[in-house]
Amino acid sequence: MGDPYSWRGLGRRMFDVYIQGDRVLRDFNVQAEAGGSKRALVKTFEASVNNTVMDVHFFWAGKGTCCIPYQGTYGPQVSAIRVSQGT
């Protein structure tokens, strides 16, 4: 969805983000927030972790694109997550 010069750039990846069951982002559009495609974006959240399990859920609520640039292209796309222990 990174081609701003053709119809292939019209798609949107919008999703909600839940951490440990709490919604921390609603209708999040990573491309709009980062200022374009293929750009790094850093978001920071705090969460309590029990039993060494952290649950991060990306929920596509049907508000993004489902067919551009290809059929079946929809929902979140995240390349990396960093988790660190707080002090």
Q: What order do the SSEs take from the amino end to the carboxyl end, as H and E?
A: EEHE
**Structural class, please?**
mainly beta
Shape designation = globular
Q: Overall pLDDT, averaged?
A: 77
Residue windows where pLDDT falls under 50 for at least 5 positions: none
What kind of sheet is the major sheet? 3 strands, antiparallel
Q: What's the assembly state of these chains? A: single chain
What is the terminal separation in angstroms?
Answer: 39 Å
Our Rg estimate from Cα atoms comes to 15 Å
Helix count, DSSP H or I runs of 4 or more residues: 1
Query: Going across the major beta sheet, what is the strand order?
Result: 2-1-3
Please estimate the helix content.
under 10%
Give me the count of strands: 3
Task: Report the portion of residues in β strands.
Answer: 15-25%
Describe this entry's structure for a reader:
With 87 residues, the protein is mostly beta strands. It has one helix at residues 30-34, and strands at residues 14-19, 22-29, 56-59. The protein has a three-stranded antiparallel β-sheet. β1 (14-19) and β2 form a beta hairpin. The longest helix is centred in the middle third of the chain and has 5 residues, at 30-34. The chain is globular and about 40 Å long. The model has no long low-confidence stretch (mean pLDDT 77).
